Amino acid sequence: MMILRYAPASPFVRKVRIAASILGLADRIELVTSNTADQQDPVRQDNPLGKIPTLVLENGMRLYDSPVIMAYLDSLAGGGKIIPAGEMRFKALTLEALADGMLDALILQVYEVRYRSEERREPSWVQHQADKVSRSLAALEDDPPALVDGLPNVGCIALACALGYQDLRFEAKWRPGHPRLVGWLDRFAKAVPAFEETRFKG
Amino acid sequence: MMILRYAPASPFVRKVRIAASILGLADRIELVTSNTADQQDPVRQDNPLGKIPTLVLENGMRLYDSPVIMAYLDSLAGGGKIIPAGEMRFKALTLEALADGMLDALILQVYEVRYRSEERREPSWVQHQADKVSRSLAALEDDPPALVDGLPNVGCIALACALGYQDLRFEAKWRPGHPRLVGWLDRFAKAVPAFEETRFKG
Hints:
The structure is a homodimer.
Chain A lengths: L1 E5 L4 H12 L6 E5 L9 H4 L7 E3 L5 E2 L2 H11 L10 H28 L8 H20 L11 H16 L9 H13 L1 H5 L5
Parallel strand pairs in A: 1-2
Antiparallel strand pairs in A: 1-3, 3-4
Helix pairs in contact in A: 1-3, 1-6, 4-5, 4-6
């Protein structure tokens, strides 16, 4: 068994769990809860950054971050499954980077509250992060990614997780202004049961 | 010509410039300075996150973030050049993610000063980021990556840029405690002239 260091609410872990599910690899991966705030948590041995997801292979090799794990799972499943071949590859990978970048900007907003007392928060920094998300949502609403039949690619998986994270932590405020993306996420959820199965209900 | 939206001091851009140089692609890429703090900068059209490096291809396609651009340049050069095949691939990609994660943690420390007045800084947050870097340096000092003959892989390129960034912005404080990594960086710099050529001298 591989070990996935994980937390149930992590959107980056969710990417990996969805990928494992649709690639038929979920039963080869044991989920082990990690508390990244705990200095004694074994994740810091496996990944000096102390971040999840971190995947421990049977041979002891450690893989991170989430795009690397996604690429590994794709190769384990034979390749070309969730990372398309040819030029579509870089389109999918760039969409993944866009969605991951949205997540980074969202998480920095969450951390601003979680790690700082009110007088140490910086509204212009929070706005700077929020603007990254707004611009990304606007660009994606303008031109939602194709959801073709067959397996979704890593970009679509990451985008679904980035939208789902805003449902979880930002009161779904993205929805009213982005009807095409709302429809896109509905179609994604219908095509990929693992999306709902991995939704954090805490 | 491709266009690389860039800034001379960006360590993530430096990765791409080194890759382009060693892959013989530098003369196909025009460097265009980007001010990511300027709302009117065209980088925000090319990449809604407003981040550099962003690569604009001749067909108009936009690629980011730096690991995606590195993979694209490798494929453009025929593949298997700076991203090895087989299991070494994921070792190299994970090292790249480690070095990129160190850079993220370093840049958050720089931004803490740049974007906040003194009373809005949070020492425990800065320490949390600094600890990620310390643990990563300790793990790498324990077991420095192999520098084999031939082209360095994306992981080694990223690590060199992460160490170089600490020379630039953190007064080279990493050096005294990490003699093996200092020796590693010396060997890297000797083997890869583009490392010195892309050093920011501002």
